[in-house]
Design goal:
The chain is mostly helical and 67 residues long. The protein has one domain: Helix hairpin bin (Helix Hairpins), CATH 1.10.287.660. 85% of the residues lie in helices and 0% in strands. It has two helices and no strands. The longest helix has 32 residues.
Length: 67
C-alpha cells in the first residue's frame, strides 16, 4: 500500500469513527431524553449505531493490517 493510499484509509477511519460517535450520541440522547415516549425509535437508532460501529471496525482492521 502506498503512502497516499494509507493516508486515504486513515482519513476514512477517522470519518467512520466520527459517524459512529455521532450515532452513539443519538442513541444516548434517545435513552436519556426521549424514553419512554419514543420507545419505538429504539430498533432503528440502535441498528444505525451498530452499523456505523461495524463500518468503523472493518476500516480500522484494514488500517491495522496495512500498518
Amino acid at each position: 500500500m502506498t503512502e497516499e493510499e494509507l493516508k486515504a484509509l486513515q482519513k476514512q477511519v477517522r470519518k467512520a469513527k466520527r459517524i459512529a460517535t455521532e450515532r452513539a450520541g443519538e442513541l444516548h440522547d434517545l435513552v436519556e431524553d426521549r424514553l419512554p415516549k419514543d420507545y419505538e425509535d429504539i430498533p432503528a437508532v440502535a441498528q444505525a449505531t451498530y452499523d456505523a460501529c461495524q463500518a468503523w471496525a472493518e476500516l480500522d482492521a484494514q488500517l491495522q493490517a496495512a500498518s
